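Quick start: load a record and inspect it. Here is Endoribonuclease YbeY:
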Amino acid sequence: MLTIDFLDETNTIQPAHQQLVDDILRHAATFMGITEEAEISVTFVDDAAIQDINREYRGKDMPTDVISFALEEEEDVVIEGMPRMLGDIIISTERTAEQALSYGHSFERELGFLAVHSLLHLLGYDHMNEADERAMFGKQDEILTSFGLAR
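Running the structure step on this input writes:
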């Protein structure tokens, strides 16, 4: 079972949007075979807040759409009786809205995409080279399509 802790620092997230993120993360976790107890936190922020985080942790002084902080490492030992601590997802709602408009799809589709993208990062996927990008984006598309949020 997946436990998701939400924090809306913007005070703008509609209950339906939080429910969407909850539903799609649970769907993606099941799709990815996560059957044990696991925890994720999701925080919604504005562009200024995510820019501060991006500058501090990634050395990039600009806003971004989403940042993931994985708490697991390959060599971590799972402690019996304790949930997997997958990590933290931080989503800029301003950037989500801008990108949805730019890409010509709904806020909900972009929000779902960012949530799935982040979960895959927490699970060790990345897109630093072409092969990894194909694998990660292919998995994203499979999850989004099976959930009903395809482009």
